[in-house]
Amino acid sequence: MVDELWPLDGARQVDDELERFYAFPEQLERPWVRVNFVSSLDGAVTVKGSSRGLSAPVDQRVLGLIRDLSDVVLVGVGTALIEGYRGIKRTEVRAERRERHGLSEIPPIALVTAHASVPLDSPLLTDTVVPPIVLTTEAAPAQRRAELADAGADVVVTGDAEVDLRVALDALAERGLRRIGCEGGPRLFGSLIDQDLVDELCLTLSPVLASGDASRIAVGSGVETPRSMRLDSVLHAESLLLLRYARMRG
């Protein structure tokens, strides 16, 4: 379906329509991974090293909604640090929406980092209501893992030298976190594709041409057979296209 949600009669109508478009499946019995990215028309995932140059208020509104509907926000530590992540804040709208959907008041952020490389003074630790989950490995320095735990993080060892994403997703599910909103970066997305762990891709096409040497939205080892996806919805607003694809599984 193709719909234009702006302009509508009011902000509440927009929010209601967006919730319908981005609702997770009911009664999940396994982790459901929804990946959200913004890209330029020519495939750049960043402008001058950050996605901010591609984003717009409409896209940010959808990003916030996807966070509101997720049990947990999954992100690679490099992306989190480059983009200046901090703990997700409580708002009245977020609290009301999440209560209505039976979710906790604020979703935690789960950081994928093989070496537990989260600075102890990061806002992810110092400016958050809900402590982050650090998905790391045995190879990460034991002292750093202990320091992160002392700083309040939920540190989870999910592999030997590399984060085993299946183990990581299972660890989140064990914590009741099955609705997973993944915000990248490209290497994490590529690894999820390689292991066939992506259930949905929400892709915003920003109406700009960026050129340059920016990465594509997914960087991985590659798959022998590309993963087939089904276009579930298309929204357009202010020359942006907001696409939602679902994985076609046999």
Account of the 3D structure:
The protein has 250 residues and is of the alpha/beta class. The chain has one domain (28-247): Dihydrofolate Reductase, subunit A, CATH 3.40.430. The protein is 29% helix and 23% strand. It contains eight helices and ten strands. The chain has helices at residues 11-22, 57-69, 77-82, 92-100, 123-126, 142-150, 165-174, 186-194; strands at 2-4, 32-40, 72-76, 109-112, 133-136, 154-157, 179-182, 200-206, 229-237, 240-247. Strand 5 (133-136), helix 6 and strand 6 (154-157) form a beta-alpha-beta unit. Helix 1 (11-22) packs across helix 2 (57-69).
Key traits:
8 helices; 250 residues; single chain; globular; 10-stranded mixed β-sheet; Dihydrofolate Reductase, subunit A; 23% strand
Tell me briefly what this model is.
The chain has 250 residues and is of the alpha/beta class.
Topology (elements, then pairings):
Blueprint (H helix, E strand, L loop, with lengths): L1 E3 L6 H12 L9 E9 L16 H13 L2 E5 H6 L9 H9 L8 E4 L10 H4 L6 E4 L5 H9 L3 E4 L7 H10 L4 E4 L3 H9 L5 E7 L22 E9 L2 E8 L3
Parallel strand pairs: 1-9, 2-7, 2-8, 3-4, 3-7, 4-5, 5-6
Antiparallel strand pairs: 8-10, 9-10
Organism: Saccharopolyspora kobensis
Pfam families: RibD_C (PF01872)
GO biological process, one term: riboflavin biosynthetic process
